[in-house]
């Protein structure tokens, strides 16, 4: 296989999309975060009513290592200068087994059906090709979008040649009504404790090892990982780790809480962003142990539910573990991609 630089055709110069639907386009800036967030919230209310994106999500995205805000984002503004659409291209900075560009974007629901989304997506694909075509790597490469099943965003992506490749199930457990679950016994020499900011690097190492055989996963780089675990929504006091007899992290459940998102789901909740067990420690029953400990902490903090998303084809059978702990499957999100 040739390198990505050799085999990807990319536009030599990429202008913002031409005006359409009453919007003109320009490069995004960090000052646009609140306006972009407002568009994302309005879009989620229609496309994914249980979700509400946080400003922390966008701050994290725009601080992704290597992301150039001026070149990797666009916004569509109306005649009054209000942002009504946006597109972001995230060139995933870690490329061990694959190179991935992930596209994020939305059009305000009031302005849909005017061709705005098609212009934004075409620009994003062009910019993603530019980013990937700079790499002297002999790796598979994909451009990806993610959206709720049945959404207009997926239909638009399909029209542009993207194909569904993975399903992610939204799972929720209501802790107020959760029956007492008996998790496996903790192996001798192991202990469970809360996570802390002092665990950041050790957690990154554990996460990268635990997820290296999971679909689409690439190792997290240190700066992006630290940004996630120090974000305003991060709750290390609710997360849990299992330490082995040598004091090494062998399992983890990482939790975040965004009170602004409670109304969309109809209750307070903690979001379990990652649950993992390092490969050498699998088979000891540590996943249900560490997740059950996190659920108990979330409930003790006065939150009424816990939410997570699981790969429907997770190789470790995580969905079945979550069901045994009381989680119930809900809406499905889809990743669609095109290979280069």
Unreliable parts: none
CATH class category name of the largest domain: Alpha Beta
Order of helices and strands: HEHHHEEEHEHEEHHEEHEHEHE
Separation, N- and C-terminal Cα atoms: 12 Å
Question: So, the CATH homologous superfamily of the largest domain?
Answer: Gcn5-related N-acetyltransferase (GNAT)
**Radius of gyration from CA coordinates:** 21 Å
> Count the helices. How many?
11
Number of domains: 2
The tally of strands reads 12
Keywords:
about 350 residues; alpha+beta; Aminopeptidase; about 30% helix
Structure characterization notes:
The protein has 340 residues and is of the alpha+beta class. It folds into two domains: 4-161, Gcn5-related N-acetyltransferase (GNAT) (Aminopeptidase, 3-Layer(aba) Sandwich), CATH 3.40.630.30; 169-334, Gcn5-related N-acetyltransferase (GNAT) (Aminopeptidase). It contains eleven helices and twelve strands. It has helices spanning 4-7, 33-47, 55-62, 69-72, 116-132, 152-159, 200-210, 222-229, 262-265, 286-300, 318-324, and strands spanning 24-27, 73-77, 83-91, 99-107, 141-148, 163-174, 191-194, 240-243, 249-256, 269-277, 305-311, 328-339. The chain has a twelve-stranded mixed β-sheet. The longest helix has 17 residues, at 116-132. It is globular. The N and C termini lie close together (12 Å).
């Amino acid at each position: 296989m040739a390198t990505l630089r050799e085999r990807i055709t990319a536009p030599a110069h990429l202008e913002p999309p031409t005006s359409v639907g009453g919007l003109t386009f320009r490069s995004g800036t960090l000052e646009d975060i609140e306006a972009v967030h407002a568009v994302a919230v309005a879009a989620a209310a229609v496309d994914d009513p249980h979700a509400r994106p946080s400003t922390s999500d966008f701050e994290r995205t725009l601080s992704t290592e290597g992301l150039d805000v001026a070149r990797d984002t666009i916004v569509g503004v109306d005649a009054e200068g209000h942002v009504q659409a946006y597109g972001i291209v995230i060139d995933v900075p870690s490329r061990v087994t694959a190179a991935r560009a992930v596209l994020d974007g939305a059009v305000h629901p009031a302005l849909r059906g005017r061709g705005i989304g098609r212009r934004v997506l075409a620009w994003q694909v062009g910019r993603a090709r530019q980013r990937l075509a700079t790499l002297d790597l002999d790796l598979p490469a994909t451009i990806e979008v993610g959206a709720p099943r049945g959404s207009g965003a997926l239909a638009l992506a399909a029209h542009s040649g993207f194909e569904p490749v993975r399903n992610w199930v939204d799972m929720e457990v209501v802790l107020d009504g959760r029956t007492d679950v008996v998790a496996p016994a903790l192996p001798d020499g192991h202990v469970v404790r809360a996570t802390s900011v002092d665990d950041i690097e050790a957690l990154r190492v554990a996460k990268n090892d635990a997820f290296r055989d999971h679909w689409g996963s690439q190792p997290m780089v240190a700066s992006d990982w630290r940004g996630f675990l120090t974000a305003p929504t991060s709750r290390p006091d609710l997360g849990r780790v299992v330490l082995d007899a040598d004091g090494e992290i062998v399992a983890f459940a990482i939790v975040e809480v965004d009170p602004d998102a409670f109304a969309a789901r109809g209750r307070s909740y903690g979001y379990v962003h990652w649950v993992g067990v390092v490969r050498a420690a699998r088979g000891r029953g540590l996943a249900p142990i560490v997740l059950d400990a996190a659920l108990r902490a979330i409930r003790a903090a006065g939150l009424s539910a816990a939410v997570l998303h699981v790969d429907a084809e997770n190789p470790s059978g995580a969905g079945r573990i979550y069901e045994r702990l009381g989680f119930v499957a809900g809406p499905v999100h889809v990743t669609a991609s095109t290979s280069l």
